[in-house]
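Supplementary Text 2. Reproducibility record for the structural model of the 300-residue chain.

All settings were left at their defaults, and a single model was retained for analysis rather than an ensemble. We include the record here because the model underlies the residue-level annotations in Supplementary Table 4.
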Amino acid sequence: MNLRSLRVFVLIMDEGTLSRAADRMNLSHSAASRLIQILEEEFDVVLFLRDKKRLIPTLEAEQFYPEALRILSQVDDIPNVLAQARSGQQPPLRIICHSRIQNSLVLPAMFHMGEAFPNQALKLEIYPRRDLARRIAHLGYDIVISTLPLPLEGLKPETLGSTELAVAVSRHHPLAARASLSIKDLAGYSYVALDETTVIRQIVDRELARADMSINVTHEVSTSAAAYRLVYRGSGFTFADPIALDPELESEIRLIPWRPVARVDFGYFLSPQSRLRETAQDFAALLREEFKKRSEASSI
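Retained model, structure tokens:
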């Protein structure tokens, strides 16, 4: 198998165009196109449909993509494996999460991991939740922590637990003294919404659809951290849960139970090919402890 052809294929899937894939590999457009042709001829398959200047992945390409990532990941990891073998060093525990839970859950667990296992190096990568499934396909991880579900077949998550979704407002907001809030209670107030790719937005929109009601979006952001800071500065309300709320803002933001009750699930994935599976399980135990601690400290 031609590895350069495989790399061009993966880059086209990642970047969306042949031109960007060629640029990433410092190839001419024609050279990159020829490498894809070689791959298709080798396996007697059509990977892309040509529509003028666009390449549209076929079903075969979508199914082949995770396997191509796995192959390249293993090839790319060979120098690290050999270097660690020569040095006698333990490889770092590779942790992946999305930004929503990095400060509140993952970083505290990493701190405790460093205390319990001072000789174990840790490597944390943070991606938007919508990109986690693709990163998991790369197999460049030992443990992935995320809200659930993830659109991913073949891997079963281990559950950390679930929490109630709440309305987050600043301590000075007119609604801050309320014991609970309904959809009707939120009418007329500025709503800082997460974008439609986030699990929180999907949960909220589902509950609104069930009630046949709506809330007008005033601002829309792609990360919870941005929403929390807008709320803290008095820009309105957002939806949050006690696990994901940034610890440094806990004293400035109030989480008010939202009715109807909606829950947010959390879990983690262990790599089936991890060389540090036992270490990843040790880290998972610390995650469970941190999750339990934050859940019990919640006022919801």
